[in-house]
Amino acid sequence: MLLFEDIVRAEKIVSKHTVTTPVVQSQTLSKAVGKRIYLKLENQQITGSFKIRGAINAISNLNPAQKKAGVVALSTGNHGRGLAFAANLMKIRCIICMSKVVPSNKIEGIKALGAEVRLIGTNQDEAQLEADRLSIEEGMTYVSPFDNIDVIAGQGTLGLEIHRQIPELDFAFVPLSGGGLICGVAKALKELNRNLKVIGVSMDKGAAMYESQKAGKPIFVKEEKSLADALTGGIGLDNKYTFELTKQLVDEIVLVSEEEIADGIHYAYWHESQIVEGAGAVAIASLLNKQFKPTGPSIALMCGRNINMDEHFTLISAKS
After folding, report:
1. Digit-coded pLDDT (tens) for 111-122
2. How many domains does the chain have?
3. Beta bridge partners of 118
4. Among 206, 230, 168, which Cα is nearest to 42's?
5. Sheet of 141-142, strand order
6. Most exposed of 57, 195, 227, 302 (fewest Cβ within 10 Å)?
7. Are residues 153 and 21 in the same domain?
C-alpha cells in the first residue's frame, strides 16, 4: 500500500517548500534515561507543524480538474494550516471544516493563510459531515489528515531526514493519532534501519488508534478534551491505510496522562528552550514517565508548536 519509493518521490516535492528541521541531543533526558536521547525539532517547521509535508505532497499530486475544484479537509488545526499553506502556494481553493472546540489560535492561523474555515458542531464527527458534503455536492477533493497515501508519504519525508541526521538510532518515539505521521516515518526509518523500533505515543483518553488496535479493527472511540488536542478524533470506521500500516510498522503504543503531557510542555520550554503544543510534547512525556525504557540511542519527535500562548504561559509557570 505504501512504498518506500513513494516517500523518496515525495521528498523531491516537499523539500522545495519546507525546511530541514534540526536534531539535537538532550543532555537532561539522556541523563535521566541512561541512553542517548535526541529531539527532532519539527516544531520549528514552516506553519509550526509537520503537517505541511503531507499537504504539499497531496496537493502536488492532484490532477488539473481536481485543482480547479479545490480541496476540503477536516482538521483539529495543524493539517488545516498545512493544507491552507499548500493551497495558497498553488492558488487552489481550500475549505477547512473544524469543530467549535478547536483552539482559536489554530482557527486564526488557518484563516491567515487564505483558507475558508467552517466551524461545525462540537466534535470532529460532525465537522466530517460537512467536509463530506462539500466533497460530494461541490466536487472538491477531500484530503484526509492521515488516511491518504500521498499525505502519509509526505510525512514520511521526516523519516528520511531523521535517518540522515542520526543514522544509528535504535528507537523512535513518535506521536500517534490517525497514523499518517507514524506510518510514514516508520516506513522510511525501518526501510533504512531494519533493527529500529518505533514506539507510538498518544494520550490516555480517547486514543482511537490505540483502542482500535486492541480491538483488532477500526472502532468508534468517544472524543475527549485533551492538552494534546491535535491527537484527538477517530481513525474512521472505513479506514483504508493507516490502521493496517500501524499494525505492521509500529512496535508498541504507550499512553501518557494529561499531567504528563503538561510536564512534557514544561520540560521542553525550561530544559530545551522549545515551545511545543500538547501533541508535540507526548514523546518527551513518555520518556520522562519511563513507561517504556529504550535500550539504545533514541529520538523523540516534537511534531508541532501551535499552542495557545496564554495556555502555554500557564503550563510553563505552574512548576517553574
Report:
1. 999 999 999 988
2. 2
3. 97
4. 230
5. 116-119, 94-98, 71-74, 141-142
6. 195
7. yes
Neighbours of 119 (CB within 10 A): 15
Contact 283, 201 (CB under 8 A): yes
The range of the structural domain enclosing residue 116 comes to 52-142
Structure-block grid coordinates of residue 182: 507514524
Which of 90, 109, 142 represents a domain boundary (last residue)?
Answer: 142
> What is the Cα Rg of the chain in Å?
18
Tell whether 186 and 309 lie within a shared domain: yes
What does the pLDDT look like over 244-254, one tens digit per residue? Answer: 999 999 999 99
Q: Cα–Cα–Cα angle for 174, 179, 183, nearest 5°?
A: 70
* Whether residues 136 and 163 fall in one domain: no
- Number of other CB atoms surrounding residue 293 within 10 Å: 11
φ, ψ of residue 171 in degrees (nearest 5): -140, 145
265-316 tens-digit pLDDT: 999 999 999 999 999 999 999 999 988 999 999 999 999 999 999 999 999 9
Q: Give pTM, 2 decimals.
A: 0.95
Give dist(CA 172, CA 120) in Å, integer: 36
Whether residue 183 is found in the same domain as residue 287? yes
Tell me which amino acid residue 243 is: F
3-state SS of the chain is CCCHHHHHHHHHHHCCCCCCCCEEECHHHHHHHCCCEEEEEHHHCHHHECHHHHHHHHHHCCCHHHHHHCEEEECCCHHHHHHHHHHHHCCCCEEEEECCCCCHHHHHHHHCCCCEEEECCCCHHHHHHHHHHHHHHCCCEECCCCCCHHHHHHHHHHHHHHHHHCCCCCEEEEECCCCHHHHHHHHHHHHHCCCCEEEEEEECCCCHHHHHHHHCCCCCCCCCCCCCHHHCCCCCCCCCCHHHHHHHHCCEEEEECHHHHHHHHHHHHHHHCCCCCHHHHHHHHHHHCCCCCCCCCEEEEECECCCCHHHHHHHHHCCC
Task: Give 61's contacts (C-beta < 8 A, 6+ positions apart).
Answer: 150
